[in-house]
Amino acid sequence: MHSDPKLVSRVEAVTKDWRGLAATRMFGGIAWLLHGKMCVGIWHDSLVVRCDPTEWPKHLAKPYVREMDITGRSMKGWLLVEPPALRTRVSLKRWLEVSRSYVSTLPAK
Q: Which domain holds residue 92?
């Protein structure tokens, strides 16, 4: 399994100035950790988005967004955003900011 290289490049272009962000291999794809905490990732051609669990249902109601369920078990607060919802730089940036905003509130490790 691999991460879509075009989506990897697009994510890197948007996040290049994010302080504390580091890429790593995870769940058969690539993920970015913000200050050591999982923030976003790419699984196949979808964006893995971490969000506030209380806002999870609101995000799931949006088109081309589904529960992250790559192991057969859904993970509350984790989304898979499919390519049609990531077509523009603005839409990609919006989803990346959902993760960044939430992960920035988590306590330090």
A: 5-103
User: What pairs with residue 21 in β-bridges?
Assistant: 34
CATH of the domain at 9: 3.90.1150.30
Backbone dihedral region of 54: left (phi > 0), alpha (psi from -120 to 50 degrees) or beta?
alpha
pLDDT (tens digit per residue) in 55-108: 999 999 999 999 988 777 778 899 999 999 999 999 999 999 999 999 999 987
Query: Mind listing the pLDDT tens digit for each residue in 3-49?
Result: 788 999 999 999 999 999 999 988 778 999 999 999 999 988 999 99
Task: Look at residue 57 and give its three-state secondary structure.
Answer: helix
**CA neighbours closer than 13 Å in the CB half-sphere of residue 16:** 6
Q: Is 19 exposed, middle or buried (0-12, 13-18, 19+ CB in 10 A)?
A: exposed
pTM: 0.91
Q: Indicate the number of domains in the chain.
A: 1
